[in-house]
Amino acid sequence: EDLKLADFQPPTHFVVDSTYKPFAATIADKTGGAVTVTLYMGGEIGPGPVEQYNRALEGVADIAFGLPGYTAANFPKTLLAELPGVITAENGTERILANLDKLSDEYKRVVLLGLWNNAPNLLFTGAKPIRSLDDLKGLKIRVPSRNAGLVVEAWGATPVSMPASEIYNAIQTGVIDGAMTDATTLKAFKLAEVTKYITQGMDTTMSDFFLVMNRDSFGDLNEDQQKIVLDAGRTAAINGNKAWLSVAAKALSDFAGTDGKEVITLAPEEAAKFNAASSAAVDKIIADADAQGLEASAFVKALKGN
Amino acid sequence: MTPFVAGFVGIACLFALLTVRVPVAFSMLLVGFGGYWVLEGPRSAGGVLLTESYSAISNYNLIVVPMFVLLGNISSAAGFSRGLYDAAFAWVGRFRGGLASASVLGCAVFAAVSGSSVATAVTLGKVALPEMRRLGYAPGLSTGAIAAGGTLGFLIPPSTGFVLYAILTEESIGRLFMAGVMPGLLLTALFMVVVWLISYFDPNAGPRGEPVALADRFRILGRAAPLLLVIVLSIGGIYIGVFTPVEASGVGAALVILLAVVKRRLSFGDFRDAVMSTLSTSAMLYAIVIGANVLNPFFAVTRIPATLGDGLGALGLGAYGTLFVIILAYIVLGMFMDGLSMLVITIPIVFPVITALGFDPIWFGVVAVIVIEMGMITPPVGLNVFVVRAVAGDVPLTTIFRGVAPFLLAMIVGLLLIIAIPGIALFLPNTMFG
Amino acid sequence: MRDAIDIWSARFEKATFYLALIGAICLLAIVAIVTLGVVMRYVLGIPILGVNEFVELTAVALIMASLPFCTARREHVAVDVFERILGRWGRFIGDVVAYCLSGFVMSILAQRAVLKALDAWQWGDATNMLRMPIWPFYAILAAGAALCVLTFAVQLVVLLLKGEK
Ligand code: NA
Ligand code: NA
């Protein structure tokens, strides 16, 4: 049995060595070569992030890497983990994996192998430094998701939605003032070229990534093989989280070390203003989710570990 | 059947289907679907058909195709395109083959609002071919100039080719657009040289036009103002950052419609025809993109691209040797395949190889687009040649292919110049974007 | 008999034209909303959130409503370099093959799109920002593909009854 793993990121992406190669090796090893994994990077079997979930669903790929945020309507509960102050970048993946059973309702159409969080989304701006909440007022900021849009709105800025691949042009030409995105995009989308300031220090959103598997492909495996694949998926989530955090940290320090670029870390009293504004929005999102019967408060509490 | 063998059987089937005149789009759909069925089973094959069709049609950046086709069709219907053509003729018509040169120039200017080679060739062909016939131009020269000039639509920004390349490689669209400007002007100049040479050696092929007084030339240029205004606003808007390429295409189309209505140049019937023809052309182009999107995963699971890509690296030809092999392969593929499909299928294979060899990805985008343009006018499948035959009426296909040959040589010369002096492509993006 | 075929095939082509009018509305709507987005952002300073989602979904309706029209007008690009070599019977058989196979692959697409529309409806698939339901657009995809199948069928019947054009 050969499993096709589809990812839209380029074949040179760090996820290959850090996450996929160990994932494939573990599965081949533990199943005695009965199950293998072949990588299709760069959107070889279907371009772009948007349709990744559907590709696993419809069986184009056996396993697909994707972002639940691209099909947010299907994953309202999963995406609670993206909200500011719910998890930390470092222990978030651990907390998510420990509480996967609470998400089972959202993964009935596919099999969830791994779910992990990215480095925090920071505020990238092209020309205007954000040193206080007032600086952000009225700026047009590209947001990666609906929830992030609500947070940015709570901060007093105007959220703009556009594909990640368009951020470069949009900042460079001034269509937007900045973008809320993670530090790995400095390199992946060359945003370092058009970004002058990065603001960090407030509680902020964190995008989730997942590896999902087609149900029929999973059903074709015997029970032992299924367990091996699931375990390898959990390990991949932990490896993926570590890789993203370390690449983001390096990209951020490279950026800070570049002439004419500045990483602004908010003073504690300013960060508190951001957090006060966003926590009101977060409370509302959670309350809305509770009202929809998602047991959101319980899930968030479990993620926070208290 | 091993996946590798299945891949070659698939290619053979594709050629067989094309030969018996199954439309290009459906040939690709069939081979992609059938091949995935053989290798991965019916459920996955249906999945590819569904998700990749939907993903292609709902691709945000691809919407520039119908927008720019609409812009071109409305310009034609309202007579703006003809105004522009008259202006170009007033300035260069008195030279040998001046009308053909004017057509090439008109193509270049129209290319600056149209992202598609087909739209450029159609629009200019409708206006220029009747005028050239009236003045006794040789059909080979006139159709060849339009078919070749039309390919400039793909190189001079905005360009659906660059947009697709940017999507596939995650390069910046703005940079690619800027990189296309100087090579586009270079090819325009080379095409005009070709026209001049042909008319020099065969004066009957392109007789001289009447000279136009300088004052008249400016007056006629003034009549071209509407379309020039749209060009300046929409293209200029992208350059100075007022809007994104998608927005430019939408605003450009809106402006042309508005101008045509305000100047009372557009009857309802003409408007309806322009819109309906836009829909048909768009559906045709999207069908081809869908076909390529469905064929792509099949080729990926055959591992032929990966194997060839590895083989390319293993040949040990060095940077320029490998580049030469890639260009040669593109020219051969381009004889049979549609340009956009070729980009989709080959760029994921070739791009990593090229960047690993140290070539500039933006520069290679320009090289790839020029080679793909060549494919649009090489036999047996030359989309632009088909389009020109459609608007020229009774000119035999072989005459057009023969007429296009010297322009093909000019493109090779242009390509060699850009390989020798990468600055032709990179100077503008590097000075503008740092 | 021949006249009847002509009349019915002309009526069918007219029907695809009316369907394409929906595509025309979509096309003009996209032009309008994209332009409005730019105007709102610069003149009023209010960016419209989710223009891209509107454009993406409307494009599905635009293209799928136009595809049967394009097919009925036989505007799809085909390679006709071998036209002479094929001969009269070669062309005839080629056209039969083209209609059958193209119809076949589009019928699979229509069938999968129907299933997907039902699935998307059942699970409430929706867009991110505007929360527009996605199932109607798969339904449009299915309808457009099915009408293409019908178009190929009509063209095949015309070809078989009347011979090559
Ligand atoms: Na162009
Ligand atoms: Na060709």
Output the keywords.
heterotrimer; A: 306 residues; alpha/beta; 5-stranded mixed beta sheet; 41% helix; B: 434 residues; 22 helices; 0% strand; binds sodium ion
Verbal overview:
The complex is a heterotrimer of chains A (306), B (434) and C (165). Chain A has helices spanning 15-30, 52-58, 92-98, 133-136, 146-154, 167-173, 185-188, 215-219, 223-256, 268-291, 296-304; strands at 2-6, 36-40, 63-66, 110-117, 121-125, 140-142, 158-160, 178-182, 197-200, 208-214, 262-265. With 306 residues, chain A is an alpha/beta fold. In chain A, strands 7-6-8-5-9-11 form a six-stranded mixed sheet, with helices on both faces. In chain A, strand 1, helix 1 and strand 2 form a beta-alpha-beta unit. In chain A, helix 5 (146-154) packs across helix 10 (268-291). Chain B is mostly helical and 434 residues long. Chain B is built from 22 helices and no strands. Chain B has helices at residues 3-19, 24-40, 42-57, 64-77, 80-92, 98-111, 117-134, 139-150, 152-155, 160-169, 173-201, 214-223, 225-239, 245-262, 268-302, 304-314, 318-336, 339-356, 361-375, 383-392, 397-420, 423-433. The mean pLDDT of chain B is 84. Chain C has 165 residues and is mainly α. Chain C has one domain (2-162). Helix content of chain C is 81%, strand content 0%. Chain C contains four helices and no strands. Chain C has helices at 2-44, 51-72, 83-123, 135-162. The longest helix of chain C has 43 residues, at 2-44. At the B-C interface, helix 1, helix 2, helix 3, helix 4 and helix 14 of B face helix 1, helix 2, helix 3 and helix 4 of C. The site of one sodium ion has 6 residues of chain B, from helix 17. One sodium ion is lined by residues 111, 114-115, 153, 156-159 of chain B.
**Average pLDDT value of chain C?**
89
**Beginning-to-end CA distance, first to last residue of chain C:** 16 Å
- Greatest interface and its residue counts? B-C, 58 and 62 residues
Quickly give the structural class of chain C: mainly alpha
The largest sheet of chain C, given as strand count, sense and whether it forms a barrel, is:
none
Radius of gyration of chain A, CA atoms, in whole angstroms:
19 Å
Total of domains of chain C:
1
Helix content of chain C: over 70%
Judging from the principal axes of the Cα atoms, what is the shape of chain A?
globular
Tally the beta strands of chain C: 0
**Beta-strand segment tally of chain A:** 11
Could you tell me the strand content of chain C as a percent range? under 5%
End-to-end distance of chain A, in Å? 42 Å
Q: Over all CA atoms, what is the radius of gyration of chain C?
A: 20 Å
